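As agreed, record copied across for absentees:
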Amino acid sequence: MNCAHCGTPLPEKRRRDQVYCSNACSARASERRRKDGQPVPPRWRHPALTADDPVLRAAARHAQELGQVGGWNPSTTRCVLDGLVTVLTSLPAGERVPLSEVRARPQRWVSRPRLIEVLTDLDLLHDDSAPAIRSWIDRVTSHLAPGFINPVRQWLLVLLNGDTRSRPRSASSIYVYFGCIRPFLDDWAAGYDHLREVTRSDIRTALGPLSGSRRATATSAMRSLFGFARKRGLIFSNPTTGLKGRPADFALLPMADEEIRAIEQQADDLAGRVIIALAAENAARTGAIRHLTLDDVDLANRRITLAGRRQRLGDLSHRVLRRWLRHRRATWPHTTNPHVLISDKTAHGTGPISQQFVTLRMTRTGCSVDRIRKDRILHEALAGGADPLHLSLVFGISHSTAARYSAVAEHLLADELDQTPQP
């Protein structure tokens, strides 16, 4: 391609919208157009916006709209359009783009998350990738002894996917379960050829040095593994039958006045105040706070939906949420993220804030969301006469958990009555 004014060949590595060899040629061409009364030529447009393929053209226009709404950098939008050209050109009609191809084919400066967002909105993406945890399961079980590989791998896959009689477990639960029993599996593999040879004596020997929450977690993991293996016919008998773990060593006590004052003084961040308010008034868990959406908050009627349960919105949470939503609109006016709490990173997408986002804000206060949540439930138990049914209805907790809070409340109330001076 040559310069549109002087005809000098343009360099191979140039901008795609470059038509002049220098600024001087651009200025002379502009002056000539003014003298001749010629109109200004149209600005350069990305070829994807005028492509013959209707699918590519629609995807390019949608990407441009998302870039305007989400505040994408012009360079980001341009690179996403390049990625659309790469993955949609020669795509057969009616087929979708595999996710593995999106991650491999476009050039390295193309924003994969933005490209995936465009294709997902238009239902043009097919997720053909295997979850990372499946690869992890294959990797960690491959190092076990031959007689232990198959039972343990099948057990972990059932934990991941669930079956007709059990629900899928979270990835964190799977990591914790396997991490608890892996040392025992390695010890047993040194003397046995198969999982079916493990006896109740071996189980007791393994659990002997453990105590507290570590023993309870290891016991649950062993019961899950051997119960699954017995049900599938991989072992002859279950050595964990009747095995019960010791309860975790923890105490439910109300928060001290010093802790409450520290939280009030350190909660200088609006997002942190929202987290503390929801945990202190509604006993919200971290996951429920992270996944809270704008549709879940009804400020006019003072109602909020946390983890699928519609609840009353307290005065503190109401004030804090109003301030946060005003700050949210002023800071990220064009965001399309549906979640209440967002950050500079998630404002350009649709995902929730990370666990680390919550942890960093709670670290400043020296307290955790779980600690505040337990204090709220215990306070309700003390105020409501230690009624477990009342706690279950208000907070949606299980009957066993409600009974545990009620038992602690009864002891605290009894101590207060014993210490009250008699007239």
Observations:
- The radius of gyration is 31 Å.
- Residues 246-250, 417-423 have pLDDT under 50 and may be disordered.
- Residues 31 and 38 are 10 Å apart (CA to CA).
- Residues 1-41 form one domain.
